[in-house]
Amino acid sequence: MKMVFKSKIKWIALFVLILSTVSLVVHLSITRPSGAYSMQSTLMPFNGFDFTASIFAPQSDRFVINKKLWGPVKSLKSLQPYANPRSNYPVPSERTNGYIYAKLFGGFEKIRSAICDLVTISRLLNATLVIPEIQESLQSKRISYKFKSFSYLYDEDQFIASLKNDVNIVKSLPENLKSARRRNEVRTYKPKRFASPNFYVKEILPVLKKSKVIGLLLHDGGCLQKGYAHFNDRSMVFHLVPILVGCDALIDDHVDIHKAWHLQFCNGTSHFGALNLGIHGTSILPPSMFEFQRLRCRVAFHALKFRREIQMVGQLMVQRLRASGQPILAFHPGLDVHAELIQYRRAQMIKQGILNGELGVDSQILRDNGSCPLMPEEVGLLLQAMGYSNRTVIYVAGSETFGGQRVLIPLRAMFSNTVDRTRVCTKQELSDLVGPETPLPLNPFQPPPTKSEEQLKEKWNMAGPRPRPLPPPPDRPTYRHEKEGWYGWITESDTEPDPSPVDLRMQAHRLLWDALDYIVSVEADAFFPGFHNDGSGWPDFSSLVMGQRLYESASSKTYRPDRRVLEEFFYITRDNMYYHHNYSWKLSVREHLNKSLSEDGLIRQSLLSKPATFLSHPLPECSCRIPSAEVPKQVKGNDGRFLYGGEDECPIWMKHSQEETHLESAMAGDGSNGNTELEFENDGVEEQESDDNAGKSSLTQLHMDQDDEWDPND
Hints:
Layout: H1 2-31, H2 39-42, E1 63-64, H3 67-70, E2 79-81, E3 99-104, H4 108-124, E4 128-130, E5 133-134, H5 156-162, E6 169-170, H6 175-182, E7 187-189, H7 197-211, E8 213-218, E9 226-233, E10 236-245, E11 249-250, H8 259-266, E12 269-272, E13 275-282, H9 290-303, H10 308-322, E14 328-332, H11 339-351, H12 363-368, H13 376-386, E15 393-396, H14 409-414, E16 418-419, H15 421-424, H16 427-434, H17 453-461, H18 485-492, H19 501-523, E17 526-529, H20 541-552, E18 557-558, H21 563-573, H22 583-597, H23 599-609, E19 623-625, E20 635-636, E21 642-644, E22 648-649, H24 652-670, E23 677-678
Parallel strand pairs: 1-23, 3-4, 3-5, 3-8, 4-6, 7-8, 14-15, 14-17, 15-16, 17-18, 19-22
Antiparallel strand pairs: 2-19, 9-10, 9-13, 10-11, 12-13, 20-21
Helix pairs in contact: 4-9, 5-9, 10-19, 19-20
C-alpha cells in the first residue's frame, strides 16, 4: 500500500512538471516581440550602441501610416510656402550708405530671430551687412579653432549667396574701418526689441551716412517691431498710441503727450495719476513693409542653413529614427526655467534693496492660467488619449531639460521608444561635430576644505551654554550640484559668479545640440510643444519650430494646444489618478487637440504668437493658397489686416507642381502591398489623408568659411 501511494505521488509530480513546462512555453511565445517591432529594443541603449544594417533595415512593407494620427490636415493642404517678392523689389546697389556689424547675445532662439531682424534693418537702411558675431561661439569661449562665431553654427557661404538679391553681405570690414573699430571710434547702439523702423531711419541712418559704419549690440532676440504705447489702469487698457519715431514723438488723434514724458517711456514705464504707460511692440509691420516681412522669411527658412557637419548629423538622426518605417513625433518639454529658483533669488534681492516690489510667484495660479509648461507625464497621457501606441517613436528635443532624465521617466514608462540625441547619436559623432578642442580640467569642482581637529574643538566650545546632552551632528557631505550653477550661487553668494571655462564651452555646445533638435523637430511627422507662446514676447524654441513647419508644410501634424484648457482637463483627474481612462475624458482631449491641429488652432496661434514673434506665424505674408473647394476662414487683427485667410493665390507653376505631386502620390498608393497591418489603434479621431511629403524640409549643404574679424571688446 505504501509503495502504491509513493507511485501516485511521483505521477502527480510528473504531471505538474509537464503542465508547468507547457505553461512556460505558451507564455514565452505570447510575450515574444514580433520582428516588425524589433527596433524598440535597439533605441533604448545609451551612447555607444551599434547601428547595424540588420537593426535598421527598411521594414516599410510591415507598416502603413495611420491616417488618423499621422496624415496631413485636410483644411490646411492648400497653403504653400511662397516668400518670393510680389512687387517692385530692386536688387541692392553696390554703393550703400555704409557698413553694419553686430554682436548677438543669447541662446539659439534669440540668435536666429535677431539675425532675421538684422538683415531686414540692413535692407531698410541700404547698408552692407557684415557677418554678425555670435557671442556664445567666439574663440574666447574655448571652442574649436576650426570655427569662429557665425560659422560655428551656420553656413556663411549659403547665407551670403541666398541673400545676394536682398542685401550686400561681406565677411569682414574693410581695413580702414577695422582700424577705426579697434580704436573704439565706431558709434555703437543697443536697440531694444520694440525699436520701430522709423527709429532706424531717423536716428541711425544719418550717423551711418556720416561715419560709414555703425555697430549694433542685440540682447533681446530681435530689434525691429512696430512699437505701441498703451495706458493701463491696473488691468484695463485705455488707449493705444503708435510710436512714430522711436521714443521721440508720441502723437495720436486724441492724445498729445509732452516730450518730457517720452524719455521716461523709453526706459519702460511711467506713471500719471492712476494711469500707467508701458512700451510694447508688435512684430506685424505696416502694410507698406510686407516685402520686409517676406525678407524675414527668406532669411529664416532659406538663408540660415546650419553648417554641413550639423546638417549631416541631423539628417542621419532622422534616417535612423525612420529606419523601421515608423513615423516620428517630436516633443519639446520647454522645462528650461524653474519659477521657484527665480523666486528665491528675487527674495534675496528684495531683502537687499536691489529690487522693489512684492514677490508673487504662485505655481498653482500660473498653472491654472496656462503659464507653466506641460510635464512630460501629462503629455504622455494626452498622446495615449489621442490613440498613439506605446511603440510610438518619440524624440525629446531640448539640450538641457530642467530636472534631467528624471522628469522623463514617466513618459518613457508609457512610450518605450522615447529617445533623445544621446540615444540616437554616438559619443564619437557628437565629438566630431564640435571639432578638436583644447583639453580642460575634467573636474573643476573643488569641495570645501575639511576642518581640523582644533577647529572642531573650537566650534564645540563656542556651541552654546552647558549642559549639552548631545554633540553637534557631523557635517553633511557637500554634493557637487550644490556648488555649481544655479544651485551654488543662488544660495552661497549675492552675485552670480563668472562662468568657468567649462561653462563657456558648454554654452557653445548647447547651440549645436539645439540645432540638431531643431532639424529633427522640423522633419518629424508630428510635433507637440510642451511650452510656447508664454506671452513674454521672447522667441522660444517651440514657436520657431512651429513657424517653420507652418511655412514648409502647413498641413503636417503640428499640435497647438491651449495649456489653460488642458489644465482644466488634468484638474479633473487629480482626485482619481485613473480618471484619464474615462472614455468621455478621452473624447474631450481628442476634440481639443484635433482642433489645435486644424484652422481653429492656427487662428488662435496667430492671435497670440504673431504680434510677439513673426517667425512663429509667417502668414499670410509668406504663403500662398492653391484654390480648393473648401473656403478658408478669414481672421483679421485689431488693425483690420488679415492674420489668416488673406493669402494670395499661388502662381500657375506652383499649381502644376502640386498636381503632379498628388498624381505621383495616388499612383504610389495604388501599388502598395495589401498584406500590411495598422500600426496603431484609434477611435473617435477625425480621418485624415496621408502625405509622404508632410513635415519635410530641404536642408542644403554648402562649403563653410571662417571670419578673422577681431574686436578689442570681445
